[in-house]
């Protein structure tokens, strides 16, 4: 008989034990469930020697900063905001398959400086074992900056992480993944502040209509809408499809395509073979 998986309480205790010996921790904090659990565990293990840092740039979707602040308060961790400058990097704007490397390099340079100024603290990320099978050039940037991944070290995937978040009562426990807006731009299409703002407007308009989990993929003048499988049936109701098209056009897209297939996170990576 296979051994039972660790309980959420066991996983939380293991995370706290991993972090307890650190001089202090600076957590790359998006407000998503992964970085929320790392931040909460760091605060429990280290007290005032734990700091969650959120980078704000045009790639951050509307509402995400306020949500992150709320999660940090619930986690009991100090929260700081820094300005992300990834758009100043030509290699990032070029948007090849290494875009996330350049973004994370920008982030980790800032967090490493914060950690040094605090007296040799350690930079932590919310990467988990489920991330290891995908194309994640940001992990290369993490390795170059000495970033540790406590969830990977504890062998935790998303389901166990959500269980710990629920145990702690974190608002992010059931929060869908919300990667940066640049993830809506296909590789090879240049990333710019106006493009990111257009995607943000389109998605915000759809959220205002009550759609919960979605992406608007940017293809020049065409916005391609992807909707979660459990919400696709709503499109068959009278007026719903037209409302989606109108919402996306209100963001400046001349053409709107609604993908008949369910949204799948990381779909832009499907054509990439990790090297």
Outline of the structure:
With 275 residues, this protein is an alpha/beta fold. 40% of the residues lie in helices and 13% in strands.
Describe this structure in words.
- The chain is an alpha/beta fold and 275 residues long.
- It has two domains: 8-168, Rossmann fold; 181-269, Alpha-Beta Plaits (2-Layer Sandwich).
- The chain is built from ten helices and seven strands.
- The longest helix is centred in the middle third of the chain and has 19 residues, at 99-117.
- The protein is globular and about 55 Å long.
- Mean pLDDT is 94; it is low at 269-275.
Provide keyphrases for this structure.
10 helices; Alpha-Beta Plaits; 275 residues; globular; alpha/beta; Rossmann fold; 2 domains
Overall mean pLDDT stands at 94
- The amount of beta strand, in percent, is 5-15%
CATH topology description of the largest domain: Rossmann fold
The profile of the biggest β sheet is:
4 strands, parallel
Helix content percent band? 40-55%
Oligomer: single chain
Layout of secondary structure:
Layout: H1 8-19, E1 25-28, H2 33-46, E2 50-56, H3 64-75, E3 78-83, H4 90-94, H5 99-117, E4 122-124, H6 138-144, H7 150-153, H8 158-168, H9 193-208, E5 214-219, E6 222-227, H10 240-249, E7 255-258
Parallel strand pairs: 1-2, 1-4, 2-3, 6-7
Antiparallel strand pairs: 5-6
């Amino acid at each position: 008989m296979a051994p039972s998986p660790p309980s959420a309480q066991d996983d939380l205790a293991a995370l706290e034990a991993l972090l307890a010996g650190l001089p202090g921790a600076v957590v790359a904090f998006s407000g998503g469930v992964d970085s929320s659990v790392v931040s909460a565990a760091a605060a429990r293990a280290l007290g005032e020697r734990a700091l969650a840092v959120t980078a704000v740039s045009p790639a951050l979707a509307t509402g995400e900063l306020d949500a992150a602040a709320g999660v940090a308060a619930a986690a009991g961790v100090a929260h700081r905001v820094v300005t992300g400058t990834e758009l100043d990097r030509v290699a990032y704007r070029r948007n090849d398959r290494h875009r996330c490397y350049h973004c994370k390099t920008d982030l980790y340079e800032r967090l490493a400086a914060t950690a040094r100024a605090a007296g040799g603290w350690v930079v932590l990320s919310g990467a988990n074992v489920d991330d290891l099978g995908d194309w994640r050039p940001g992990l290369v940037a993490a390795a170059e900056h000495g970033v540790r991944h406590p969830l990977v070290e504890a062998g935790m995937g998303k389901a166990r992480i959500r269980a710990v978040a629920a145990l702690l009562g974190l608002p992010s426990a059931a929060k869908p993944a919300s990667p940066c807006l640049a993830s809506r731009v296909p590789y090879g299409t240049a990333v710019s502040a106006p493009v990111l703002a257009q995607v943000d407007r389109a998605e915000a308009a759809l959220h205002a209509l009550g759609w919960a989990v979605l992406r608007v993929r940017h293809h020049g003048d065409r916005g391609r809408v992807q909707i979660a499988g459990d919400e696709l049936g709503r499109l068959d109701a009278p007026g719903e499809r037209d409302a989606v098209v109108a919402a996306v056009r209100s963001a400046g897209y001349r053409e709107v395509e609604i993908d008949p297939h369910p949204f799948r996170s990381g779909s832009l990576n499907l054509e990439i073979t990790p090297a």
